[in-house]
Write a structure and sequence with these properties.
Low-confidence stretches of chain B: none
Mean pLDDT of chain B: 89
Order of helices and strands of chain B: HHHEHHHH
Structural class of chain B: mainly alpha
Order of helices and strands of chain A: EHEHHEEHHH
Low-confidence stretches of chain A: none
Number of strands of chain A: 4
Number of helices of chain B: 7
Largest sheet of chain A: 3 strands, antiparallel
Radius of gyration of chain B: 22 Å
CATH class of the largest domain in chain A: Mainly Alpha
CATH topology of the largest domain in chain A: Arc Repressor Mutant, subunit A
Oligomer: heterodimer
Shape of chain A: elongated
Strand content of chain B: under 5%
Largest interface: A-B, 30 and 21 residues
CATH superfamily of the largest domain in chain A: Winged helix-like DNA-binding domain superfamily/Winged helix DNA-binding domain
Mean pLDDT of chain A: 92
Number of strands of chain B: 1
Number of domains of chain B: 1
Helix content of chain A: 55-70%
Number of domains of chain A: 2
CATH architecture of the largest domain in chain A: Orthogonal Bundle
Distance between the termini of chain A: 43 Å
Strand order of the largest sheet of chain A: 2-4-3
Structural class of chain A: mainly alpha
Largest sheet of chain B: none
Radius of gyration of chain A: 19 Å
């Protein structure tokens, strides 16, 4: 199966790549357990930086769409089809919205929420 | 004339015919077919300088130069052969260098053609304005292109020739710079073969427009030719060592000529049989071939 990306598209390359691989999983072009090309092979085929492919693979792995089995390579995850429909961005947005609504009900102001969010992020990252 | 002398002269004649006439002619037929049937006006992407440049004529001029170089190599061969016959020269087995240098002269046009092809691909990549890029969603493995038993055979033959050579040297090569250089040279050659295979399988696309099917065919040809070359070198070295250890030195030029003819024939036959010009997808080289991401 061939995947196609447009380097002049406004959508980031890694995002196009993720979308195409998820589409391939959803339409059955690739099945759970199928091997994927190495990062180097795909980057050279596209003529793009291997870091871009690595980023796409790492996000797909995070979403359990693909899995890396050490030196044997990268494969489609057994639950890839179900996991493709999970939108982590939408989930994060929903979770934050619920929390913010709860804060507001308790009388916390917008600036207090922003400062609190920023402090929590800094504490987590430090 | 002895049987050995007749064999030598016939093999030399066959070397001239195969490497400087037959295969160059087949190559010229293929390129002429492409130039005649897929002109720059209709397939500009195949001719990177086609924009404002008469690349049809340039292609024909290059082909003509290739033809002339091969005619020159054939003439040199006939001159050597004629000199041998006129002067009554009797081959005695010391013609190894003659065969080697003549072979180098014969393959020089092929080397230049390969270099020109690589330059052509580079120009194609530079002229590529298409923002749409394609990649196969399947990993490429060596077993997709060759049977692993041939790979095993190549490794086995490499090991066999190495052991045979060490045995010939009584396993004492540490203070023999010539032996070390020979072993290192053969190892380096095989490493280059491995590098070529890795480059073609996982490296940058040579032709940015080539269809995936044709690309896989190209990879297959390079992998098969490289493996054949590695197997051929090992067999040649084993036989060459055998004739040296059994005092059959005078057969070395004959063996060398057979080896050169076989290696060129196998390599080019793999290409000609696996990559037929009329099977190549030339539609990808048309001017308006633009595919949108799905």
């Amino acid at each position: 199966m061939e995947i196609i990306i447009d380097i002049e598209d406004t959508e980031p390359l890694f995002s196009q790549l993720i979308k195409q691989i998820k589409q391939a999983v959803q339409n059955g072009s690739v099945s759970p357990g199928d091997a994927l090309p190495s990062i180097r092979q795909m980057a050279n085929d596209f003529g793009m930086n291997s870091k871009t492919v690595a980023k796409a693979y790492s996000l797909l792995e995070r979403d359990s769409v693909i899995q890396t089995r050490g030196y044997r390579g990268t494969f489609i995850h057994p639950d890839a089809r179900n996991n493709c429909t999970v939108d982590l961005n939408a989930w994060v947005l929903q979770e934050l919205r619920n929390k913010i609504e709860a804060f507001k009900k308790a009388g916390v102001t917008d600036s207090e929420i922003r400062i609190g969010f920023s402090s929590a992020m800094n504490a987590l990252n430090s | 004339m002895t049987f050995f002398e007749i064999t030598f002269l016939l093999l030399f004649l066959s070397q001239i015919f195969l490497i400087s006439y037959y295969y160059p002619n087949e190559f010229i037929k293929r390129v002429s077919y492409i130039l005649d049937n897929y002109p720059p006006s209709e397939y500009p992407k195949f001719y990177p300088k086609a924009y404002g440049y008469d690349s049809d004529m340039a292609g024909k001029a290059r082909l003509n130069f290739y033809r002339k170089m091969n005619i020159f190599a054939a003439l040199v061969g006939f001159a050597i052969l004629s000199w041998m016959l006129i002067t009554g020269y009797r081959p005695d087995g010391s013609e190894e260098m003659l065969i080697l240098f003549y072979f180098m002269l014969q393959v020089a046009p092929l080397m230049l053609a390969s270099k020109s092809t690589m330059k052509h691909y580079k120009l194609m990549r530079q002229a590529n304005e298409n923002s749409v890029r394609r990649a196969d969603l399947q990993p490429r493995r060596l077993s997709d292109f060759i049977s692993l038993k041939y790979l095993f055979l190549a490794v086995l033959l490499y090991a066999a020739q190495l052991v045979y050579y060490l045995y010939w040297k009584d396993f004492t090569v540490s203070d023999d710079p010539e032996a070390i250089a020979t072993i290192a040279g053969i190892a380096a050659m095989n490493l280059i073969y491995i590098g070529v295979v890795i480059r073609i399988m996982y490296g940058k696309r040579l032709d940015p427009h080539q269809s995936e099917k044709d690309k896989l065919k190209t990879i297959g040809i390079v992998v098969k030719s490289t493996l054949a070359a590695s197997i051929g070198v090992s067999i040649f070295l084993i036989i060459n060592l055998y004739v040296q250890t059994h005092d059959l030195h005078h057969y070395q030029p004959i063996l060398m000529s057979i080896y050169f003819q076989l290696i060129v024939s196998i390599g080019l036959n793999i290409e000609f049989n696996n990559y037929r010009v009329d099977d190549v997808d030339f539609e990808v080289y048309r001017a308006d071939n633009r595919v949108s991401p799905t």
